[in-house]
């Protein structure tokens, strides 16, 4: 059942063309959304911008390839999260394609972010911008891009993601329950970080603006 509803969503997206680029919210409000989309917005926020307090990540504006890889990774058990494993399992290939394209096209720039927390800034900024090469920790921005805005389809944005979400991911890699990254890149990095560093670097990126303006 879910499948056909989401296919309908895909059709709506196709028919509406670029309209979503300027008006992402009305789909949720005009009642035309499938139950599946309502399910996603229930946790990821009405504009798919995440919910900081709960640690639910932003999906709006992330690469469709990255997002679909994550959904397949949840399906395959390479990422652990009871909710997402269940939701991902209910999506067909076509659903995944439609929904991730839709998320990727949502605009994000108009959303302001709180300014950076200064307490974590020194340690967090140092790791983010310079790394700790004596422990083989490269600077995060070398892969995640200047300002942590993300690069291409492989390196997701960290800027403006909830700190709690980033912390959870780094801990999951430490524990080995997220093991979906090419060549264990993030696994190695996460295992080299201590708890204080994980918190600091997560706070640092959470405080950066999504659109990359610095
Ligand atoms: C009950 C809450 C909940 C609902 C509903 C939900 N999600 Fe999630 N989602 C989460 C949480 C929590 C995470 C972070 C999981 C983790 O820590 O690994 C997540 C992560 C994700 C990610 C990975 C993002 C990234 O940056 O790697 C994708 C993609 C995703 N969800 C897609 C969806 C889609 C599509 C739907 C609707 C079909 C959906 N979610 C519905 C809670 C939810
Ligand atoms: C050598 C390249 C590289 C470096 C350096 C790097 N990352 Fe990553 N990171 C990746 C890749 C690739 C992924 C996506 C993995 C996947 O496909 O799920 C990722 C994903 C993440 C995620 C999950 C984001 C999400 O949306 O789920 C977090 C959090 C993260 N990295 C934090 C960091 C931090 C903090 C640093 C610096 C201490 C860092 N990364 C340095 C390559 C890198």
Automatic annotation (TrEMBL):
Modification after translation (UniProt): Binds 2 heme c groups covalently per subunit.
An example Gene Ontology CC term for this record: periplasmic space
Domain Cytochrome c residues, every copy: 27-107, 119-209
Binding-site positions, heme c 2: 140, 143-144, 186
Residues binding heme c 1: 40, 43-44, 84
Listed GO MF terms: electron transfer activity; heme binding; iron ion binding
Signal sequence, start to end: 1-21
Domain of life: Bacteria
A matching Pfam family: Cytochrom_C
Annotated keywords: Heme, Iron, Metal-binding, Signal
SUPFAM superfamilies the UniProt entry points to: Cytochrome c
PANTHER family documented for this protein: BLL4483 PROTEIN, CBB3-TYPE CYTOCHROME C OXIDASE SUBUNIT FIXP
Protein name per the record: Cytochrome c553
């Amino acid at each position: 059942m879910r499948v056909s509803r989401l296919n309908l969503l895909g059709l709506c997206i196709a028919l509406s063309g670029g309209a979503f680029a300027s008006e992402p919210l009305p789909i949720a409000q005009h009642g035309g959304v499938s139950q599946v989309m309502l399910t996603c917005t229930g946790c990821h926020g009405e504009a798919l911008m995440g919910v900081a307090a709960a640690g639910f990540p932003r999906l709006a504006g992330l690469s469709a390839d990255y997002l679909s890889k994550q959904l397949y990774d949840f399906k395959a058990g390479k990422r652990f999260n009871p909710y997402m494993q269940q939701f991902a399992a209910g999506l067909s290939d076509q659903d995944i394609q439609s929904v991730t394209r839709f998320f990727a096209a949502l605009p994000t720039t108009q959303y302001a972010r709180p300014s950076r927390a200064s307490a974590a800034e020194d340690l967090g900024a140092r790791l983010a911008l310079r790394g700790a090469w004596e422990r083989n920790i490269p600077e995060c921005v070398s892969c995640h891009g200047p300002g942590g805005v993300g690069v291409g389809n492989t390196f997701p944005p960290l800027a403006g993601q909830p700190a709690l979400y980033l912390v959870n991911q780094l801990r999951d890699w430490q524990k080995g329950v997220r093991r979906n990254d090419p060549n264990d890149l993030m696994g190695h990095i996460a295992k080299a970080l201590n708890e204080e560093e994980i918190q600091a670097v997560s706070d640092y990126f959470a405080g950066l603006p999504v659109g990359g303006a610095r």
